[in-house]
Amino acid sequence: MQEQHSLFFCPETEESEIIKAKTFDVQTQRIATSFYSQFSDGTDQFMDLRRNNQCNSACSSSSLQSSRTLPDECMQHNYSKCLDNDILSEAAKQSFSFVFKTQEDWLEHFAQKCVTLETFFKECAFNSLIEKEIQNEDSNIKQGIVLTIDYFTNLFTFSLYLIWKWIQNENQMDMTNYVSCQNSIPIFFKLLFQYRFNELKNDKIFITFIEQYLSTIFKFKFEDEQQSKPYLGLGMSQNSKPFPVLKENEVFPWHPEEVAKILSTINQAFYADLQIKNVIVKGGLKQYFKRINTLSQYIIYSVVKSPCKYKRQEALSYWIDLAERLQIQNDLEGLFIVFKYGIQLLLKDYISTMPILFKHQNRISKINSYYEQQIKDNLKNIKQNPKGYNIPSFQKYQTHIKRLELQAKQNRLAFEQIASLLAELVAISKEQSLKQSIMNHQLTFQEQQIAKFLTQGIEQELEKNLKIPLEKETLVYIELIKLSKIMN
Question: Where do the Ras-GEF domain residues begin and end (predicted)?
């Protein structure tokens, strides 16, 4: 699929900095465009695997068809689910697709896919990365290798591949040049488990896999981690009242300062969950994209729904107030969603002919100046506000990684740069998780209502008033354009 079909394209000019939403319907959206095209919603369907699906695998035979290499049918089914297209990166998508009727079919298919994956790794210069640097004493290099491979495949896929290579070695078959060092495989398993367990903490199927199939390589004692709180739980009670009914031409029934606080809290929770919920390596950011698309659509709708230019000015003023609050909170992620992807897109494509009050123009210019200055280094050099959220722009990371992804097949340096960016995201996730534990008290009832409305209510509000399912994004934007042209 061509690059321009993805949710974000790489901005090359000032005008194209306003990122366009993808405009294909739900059927097309199922076709992954890159590593980020699918998203784990935070629920771990394998959480009870350890308890329910124990395999009795022997480790005595070196045959390719030994019991150690063939999990029982229940575990095969879980492999099949874990390795389907929805959670694999684009690079690995064509390499693993488990469809089987018998164990023999499963094994043959698995071996064929491993050969394909090995070819991909060789073309991507993984040989030199693994063989030369996996035994380097520099822990940052090792972490970089693990994070890079995690990005392009996911560690579960790669662990199965390494088992295949390991079995080949036992059978004295050709190991070619990949992971040929006698110690590389156990070292790599130890490393990838270390980073997956210590950093990501929530992949129970991977822990089960290590326990059952790699106990002869190294021995760890595993402790069950507490199941992490649902994404955007934020202390929200289960029994909340229905959404508030908006008055005519009302944007929200809350002050912009209150909404800005909750939006930043949501952005903080997103970053905090990047590692705990394994958002990145589980195959993309589907819910993230949906959330920011929906809020962008709501910003546009809240302004253009009234044909009266004065009421449009009032609605626009609300969003400018909100953006200014996000600026005070040093929330670049919030400013990307509300200002770049909301207000600027609105002004450029929907109400460009509407005269903007001078006071609005002045405020918009100040917000834009702040955003453009801080987005250059993504808040790295800003003076930290102890009372602010200090949230960098995830879109900045995503766009940069997509650019590098296009180069990575031929350029080893791109791997190292991707690993560096992923390591930064790990550090940011830890930082935001710590801040969340300090700042994030139990939400009041009103704060819960705001959070719920921002994550669920605006979608219902849009579908109710536009009478179009939001999955049909092309039709949604066409309807918004129609509304924008009606003005008195």
Answer: 258-338
Q: Are residues 32 and 284 in contact, defined by beta-carbon separation less than 8 angstroms?
A: yes
Q: 336 and 478 in one domain? A: yes
309 and 398 fall within a common domain = yes
From 149, 184, 213, the end of a domain falls on: 213
* Amino acid making up residue 284: G
Identify residue 65 by its one-letter amino acid code.
Answer: Q
> Domain limits at 50?
45-213
Its pTM stands at 0.69
Select from 82, 6, 73 the least CA-distant residue to 44. 82
At 11 the pLDDT is 33
Tally of domains within the chain: 2
- Bigger pLDDT: 69 or 78? 78
Is a pLDDT exceeding 80 seen at residue 107?
no
Region of 374 on the Ramachandran plot (φ > 0 left; ψ -120 to 50 alpha; else beta) = alpha
176/375: higher pLDDT = 375
Residue 350, pLDDT > 70, answer: yes
Does one domain contain both 147 and 285? no
Flag whether 158 is in a domain.
Answer: yes
Give me the phi and psi of 37, to 5 degrees please: -85, -15
Tell me: do 137 and 284 sit in the same domain: no
* 242 φψ region: left (φ > 0), alpha (ψ -120 to 50), beta (else): beta
Residue 5 near residue 24 (C-beta atoms within 8 A): yes
**152/261 same-domain check:** no
Choose the final residue of a domain: 213, 247, 272. 213
Residues 477, 342, single domain; the answer is yes
Q: What are the distances in angstroms from CA 363 to CA 118, 198, 336, 389, 412?
A: 55, 45, 16, 22, 44
